[in-house]
């Protein structure tokens, strides 16, 4: 049953078993079937699904090319030289860690213009902002259709973002739908503030609200942080010292976070948040959750925005607060929210790929041993940092539904290595899951993880009993 081709008409249509040993004929027939399914009137109901599902459907169709699904999708690493140019939006930028990381690699499939996995607007923002306008001469001449298709898609998406953001009142549902597949770097600060509810949708009120909230933050800093230890309780002193120890350890492979000023900002943010949220206080891992906000809001300052550098810190504090408001029981005593989601993850993996779930269980490995950190730090420690802001576009677009959707993302992430896991014993599996081979990941691998997660969520969310607690 592992060799089951997931038919794109999964709503009510049958699955086909791949029995033909003639791989060439079978591969050709599957491509023809996919095209017929896209155009056939009998499948017109697909177009009625929301745009994210249709985009996901095209992503999966383009990358699977007849591979078994779900749970057995193989991502082929490209060994050919990468293109010298990265498809750029009007203001393309790179994150602090992206300077030394490999550029995105494009699949040179003739149908690539229809598969928008490497979205040019999903690149990240950081403290090293370099214009990277597209140069047609630098592009691969073997895939001109992909370049044209990607440019058209990028332009169309930019126009949609501009239209949604340009109104007197931003319609958040439309913004979430757009942001789910990635936000152009130069729009990301404003989009994130809106998605988190920190900035109001009404443009007339926005500037005044942000100004008041920034003043409020620094009033809190003066009240709680800028005081002597004589005015703190023993618990507060201990907490502040723990934060001071953790800040230098935060994203240690990114130079940006090793700067003294950045660490001091992070320390103020975390301590102020912990004092104002006594039910949880500071929990190790929250320091990681502040880092995407620092990078994104600092990029706005470095682009020449007249905003003060202090606004970066205030915005980071309020957005971190908004994010954690939706998952408060993840960081209270014994972290029950995370334990509940780890249980759901185990059940979901069992439903999607029973052999892997059974093997993990037979080896005596508990999901809590490796997945706890995933939920605690939202995968920031598991993937290259230059992919984090793209991942967080999807996180923030999910809004209040994020905790439950994390289960699907992490199931997809784990099952990326399903075949590998089946060959490992307990000790090997522990070591592998603690040091996953994601260093060379590009946006393609991340988009595939998100595509599978959305597909499985669409398939299983209407059958909640499989995740009953």
TrEMBL record:
Pfam families attached to this UniProt entry: RabGAP-TBC (PF00566)
Biased composition (Polar residues): 37-53, 120-135
Disordered: annotated segments: 1-53, 73-144
Domain Rab-GAP TBC: 182-399
Record's compositionally biased regions (Basic and acidic residues): 102-117
SMART domains per UniProt: TBC (SM00164)
GO-annotated molecular function: GTPase activator activity
Amino acid composition bias (Low complexity), ranges on this chain: 19-29
Record PROSITE patterns: TBC_RABGAP (PS50086)
First and last residue of the signal peptide: none
Protein name, entry field: Rab-GAP TBC domain-containing protein
């Amino acid at each position: 049953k592992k060799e089951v081709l997931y038919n794109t008409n999964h709503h009510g249509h049958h699955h086909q078993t791949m029995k033909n040993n003639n791989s060439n004929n079978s591969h050709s027939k599957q491509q023809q079937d996919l095209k017929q399914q896209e155009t056939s009137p009998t499948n017109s109901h697909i177009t009625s699904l929301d745009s994210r599902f249709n985009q996901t459907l095209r992503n999966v169709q383009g990358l699977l090319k007849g591979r078994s699904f779900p749970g057995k999708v193989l991502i082929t690493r490209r060994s050919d030289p990468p293109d010298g140019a990265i498809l750029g939006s009007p203001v393309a930028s790179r994150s602090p860690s992206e300077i030394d990381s490999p550029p995105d690699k494009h699949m040179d499939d003739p149908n690539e213009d229809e598969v928008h996995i490497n979205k040019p607007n999903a690149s990240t923002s950081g403290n090293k902002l370099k214009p990277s306008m597209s140069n047609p001469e630098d592009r691969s001449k073997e895939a001109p259709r992909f370049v044209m298709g990607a440019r058209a898609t990028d332009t169309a998406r930019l126009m949609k973002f501009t239209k949604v953001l340009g109104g007197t009142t931003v319609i958040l549902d439309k913004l979430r739908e757009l942001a789910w597949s990635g936000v152009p770097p130069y729009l990301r600060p404003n989009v994130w503030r809106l998605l988190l509810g920190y900035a109001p949708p009404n443009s007339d009120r926005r500037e005044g609200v942000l100004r008041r909230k920034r003043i409020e933050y620094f009033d809190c800093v003066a009240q709680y942080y800028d005081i002597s230890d004589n005015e703190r309780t023993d618990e507060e002193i201990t907490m502040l010292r723990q934060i001071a120890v953790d800040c230098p350890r935060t994203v240690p492979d990114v130079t940006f976070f090793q700067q003294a000023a950045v660490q001091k900002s992070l320390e103020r943010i975390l301590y102020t948040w912990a004092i104002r949220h006594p039910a949880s206080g500071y929990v190790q891992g929250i320091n990681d959750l502040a880092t995407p906000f620092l990078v994104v809001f600092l990029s706005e300052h470095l682009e020449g925005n007249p905003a003060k550098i202090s606004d970066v810190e205030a915005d980071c504090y309020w957005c971190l607060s908004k994010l954690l408001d939706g998952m408060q029981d993840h960081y209270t005593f014994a972290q029950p929210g995370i334990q509940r989601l780890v249980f759901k993850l185990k059940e979901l993996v069992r439903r999607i790929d029973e052999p892997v779930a059974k093997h993990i269980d037979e080896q005596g490995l508990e999901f809590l041993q490796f997945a706890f950190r995933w939920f605690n730090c939202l995968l920031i420690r598991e993937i290259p940092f230059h992919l984090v802001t793209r991942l967080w576009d999807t996180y923030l677009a999910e809004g209040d539904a994020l905790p439950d959707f994390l289960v699907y993302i992490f199931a997809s992430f784990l099952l990326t290595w399903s075949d590998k896991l089946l060959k490992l014993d307990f000790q090997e599996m522990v070591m592998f899951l603690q040091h996953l081979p994601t260093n060379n990941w590009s946006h393609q691998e991340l988009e595939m993880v998100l595509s599978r997660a959305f597909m499985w969520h669409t398939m299983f969310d209407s059958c909640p009993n499989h995740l009953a607690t």
